[in-house]
Amino acid sequence: MNKRSKHHDDATPDLFADLGEASAGSSQAADEGAEPEPPQAAQGNVQAALHDNQALFALLDRWVERGWLRALDRALASFFEREVSDAPPLLLLAAALASHQLGRGHVCLDLAQTLAAPDLALSLPPEGDDLSDPPPLPSELLTELDLATWRDILHHPALVADGNEPPGNTPLVRSERDGNVRLYLRRYWQYEQDIRGLIGSRLTATTDTDADTVTLARALAALFTPGHELDWQQAACALASRSRFAVITGGPGTGKTTTVVKLLALLQALALGETAPAGSATPRPLRIRLAAPTGKAAARLNESIAKQVQNLSLVELAAAVGQQGVDISTLRNSIPTEVTTLHRLLGSRPDTRHFRHHAGNPLALDALVIDEASMVDIEMMAAVLTALPPKARLILLGDKDQLASVEAGAVLGDLCQRAEGGHYTPATCDWLQRVTGTPIPERYKDEGGQPLDQAIAMLRVSHRFDAKSGIGQLAEAVNRPLGSDHGQKEKKRAVREIFGTDGKSRYADIARLALADADDPALDRLVVNGNPAGFINGGAGRHDRRGEPIASPRGYAHYLEVMQAARPAQPYFGEGDERQPYDDWARQVLAAHGHFQLLCALRKGPWGIEGLNPRIGHALRRAGWLKASDLELEQGWFEGRPVLVTRNDYGLGLMNGDIGITLAVPEARSATDTPGRTLLRVAFPTSDGSGNIKWVLPSRLQAVETVFAMTVHKSQGSEFTHTALLLPDAPNPILTRELVYTGITRARDWLTLAETGRGMLDEAVTREVVRVSGLGRLLI
Ligand SMILES: Nc1ncnc2c1ncn2[C@@H]1O[C@H](COP(=O)(O)OP(=O)(O)OP(=O)(O)O)[C@@H](O)[C@H]1O
């Protein structure tokens, strides 16, 4: 970062153009810079911080010390102060708070909301804070401030631009709408503008394969069984086939994958059935790519999509399009099954946030499907849209009610704000009725429906969880929004009732484990053996929808048992095909590991992953499943250690979210080597869905953590046969409806809710995440 003089008179300093770098650099500058105000400066008159920069920075320092604000946020304000001598304290405060919101998932600082609930603008209190000698709160600081005064202060030609004016180059942008004011770091304001512009232009454009209604109706009839009631999967296919931008949202098991496979078949059938362009012998299939935000999510979609494409009956569809129909195997082969990560698709490059593909070097494709789109943050969504050729389609799949991305933005949630109500215009309803053959229920019609509404379909029937499934019922009860007819009390009761009033679950697939405290040995038993006794009938005798028996719930002992029992006898590790026994073993252990996962809300303390991981290691060692020293369990490597990759590593081909298991393999690589000691290697499934195993030496793994316990945030995009969700015993703002819903819906066959019964479930299900952004408002 080049330094500027304090008194330069350039009204819009260009070094602010990319705040990511500016703020990162300034963090260091601030750390180095001697700003020796004693913290006491903020203790006397709190209000002084509104009028005096020294007092403000003393207060910010105390917030940083407490972990209420990030050093980066304070550094940004300090950087602005150094660069622009006359920046008022209230502007610098707003800048620090706007920066802080990014770290908490919000895209901007909403001034009205901040004034209504000032303390929510900080991370207050962070996990593990002892609350002694607290610094003054934002509510004490802002008690007398009103919106108009604060807004008027956010005018500074070098620092703040008006979002309604032509774009400038200031580091901050002020956006005023509907009497409210939002302050953005420019980069994030620009992402919103890009997303709005690029989705907006897709919504108004017609598609190349704008099939005539008769052909489309015939093709849809070939893919879906006719019925009297609207089939939302069919409607979703229809809507997505006519727009360059489409969203298909739905809860777990509502058929998002099933629908998108049919949609891909439909799009390819329509493309192959088109009359060939002059000069070319045959019509060209569309170039379609499938992607997901994490390696884990990509691998999961890969597996389910490949299966579904194989099972899809294409005979009628192939006959329904074109003059003589299309060739079935050409059609099947044209449906992609390989799923990549978004980072890989865009071509990420080390040490820069810029991708190889962008507007100047667009992706070579006609359609892109993104699964688990709720995990895509605003920066990535803007990058994807920018790199898409204008004529390419974008189809987003995801569950709008899941936790949003860890990074700023909740793009899918913003886009789907009105999905529940449909809001289809009479013209859309008429068209849908013509192509699907069924009428659209009145309650989904809206004369005032917006273009975005017409591109969104919500799948509403779960095909995985029926009325007998406690997991499905619980997810539904937790997810139900609070409304006038469904207040907090009713919601808490509805959720509690699912577990039964006598402590015995009413449903075969869910159990509640009451813990006395964080040290309760019942938690150890749960993680070791899965606590089948907590389920009706000990978890025995259940069958899935196809009548196949469901194995009773397990804990981590299961994969460790497979690890021990299936260990290959081959005394050398092997290369290529010779490694087969070890690859098979790793595949079995990894599959067994997917049978159980403990999820928790926090990172720190006895209820967070940092406390739980060593504790579970000790419990498994006591039960005889692990052999490791205390030091190895707490900080080192040991056989059986499951690890989660926490940062993409392109060199190793590992993605954030990948899970591997540490296994001891012979050091000898071939039959001719002298057999000897064993060596620890971590086995990861490759993310290409091939089922191959990647063996990595622990020393090469830069960013991994033990994953006996996993945060719910990290579990998105994954599914476990038995999921145990552990709630802490004290209130925490992180406990929200979205978090509990996301945790519950990771369970495929069994769910255990472990908690102390001190009301944290009640508290969580009645608190909703509010992500501040201007996107929903911009698009409707
Ligand atoms: N219309 C349907 N009729 C019967 N079964 C269906 C239907 N749609 C989907 N299924 C079945 O329901 C299960 C879940 O479907 P699918 O995997 O497509 O859902 P999803 O929404 O993608 O799930 P996830 O929550 O895992 O993302 C699958 O076994 C699928 O075969």
Summarize the structure in words:
With 780 residues, this protein is of the alpha/beta class. The protein contains 29 helices and 20 strands. A six-stranded parallel beta sheet has the order 7-6-8-9-5-10. It has a five-stranded parallel beta sheet with strand order 11-20-19-12-18, with helices on both faces. Strands 16-15-14-13-17 form a five-stranded antiparallel beta sheet, covered by helices on one side. Strand 15 and strand 16 form a beta hairpin. The protein is globular, with a radius of gyration of 28 Å. The structure holds adenosine-5'-triphosphate (ATP).
Placed side by side, the strands forming the largest sheet appear as 7-6-8-9-5-10
- Main β-sheet description: 6 strands, parallel
* Assembly status: single chain
Radius of gyration (CA) equals 28 Å
Secondary-structure-based class equals alpha/beta
Head-to-tail CA distance between termini: 39 Å
Organism: Billgrantia zhangzhouensis
Family: Belongs to the RecD family.
GO molecular function: exodeoxyribonuclease V activity
Catalytic activity: ATP + H2O = ADP + phosphate + H(+)
